[in-house]
């Protein structure tokens, strides 16, 4: 029986490369001179420290620009509000989301069931497996999920088996 998996994965090597490029650009740009702006990765998040909130947001936009150039979707980013850091600085934390949360998976199952396409969706941890009898039905589900509004996550369709 044909099937495929719906996942939401981040290419961490591309994120690391974009982070390195953003660090170099922040170190070289004139508008960041004397602001003590730094950007670093901690587990599944990026932390930006700067002397002002404005420079922290500018550093975030530089990082986002580098991610876009490396074809990493900005839907993976979960931006938090700036908070005060040590010695009067500003700390901006950006979490990088990976995997499909259970409520988003249930929402996708509901979208698939409401479409009346003859397939069986099944939630498996942070992935969604869709299986059906016809390959055309599976391709219709892929198109349906790509065009679905309100999901707000980047989806990849992998492990297509015939």
Quick synopsis:
By secondary structure, this protein is of the alpha+beta class.
Descriptive account of the structure:
This protein is of the alpha+beta class. It folds into two domains: 3-8 and 100-161, Alpha-Beta Plaits, CATH 3.30.70; 12-96, 2-Layer Sandwich (Alpha-Beta Plaits). Helix content is 37%, strand content 28%. The chain contains four helices and nine strands; from the N terminus they run βαββαβββαββαβ. The strands form two sheets. Strands 2, 3, 4, 5 and 6 form a five-stranded antiparallel beta sheet that branches. The protein has a four-stranded antiparallel beta sheet with strand order 7-8-1-9, with helices on one face. Strand 7 and strand 8 form a beta hairpin. The longest helix has 17 residues, at 12-28. The mean pLDDT is 90.
Percent helix range: 25-40%
Number of helices: 4
Would you identify the CATH H-level superfamily of the largest domain? YajQ-like, domain 2
Question: Care to count the β-strands?
Answer: 9
Characteristics of this structure?
elongated, about 30% strand, four-stranded antiparallel beta sheet, about 160 residues, single chain, Alpha-Beta Plaits, 4 helices, alpha+beta, 2 domains
Write the SSE topology.
Elements: E1 3-7, H1 12-28, E2 38-42, E3 45-50, H2 53-69, E4 77-79, E5 83-84, E6 90-96, H3 102-114, E7 119-124, E8 127-132, H4 135-147, E9 156-161
Antiparallel strand pairs: 1-8, 1-9, 2-3, 3-6, 4-6, 5-6, 7-8
Helix pairs in contact: 1-2
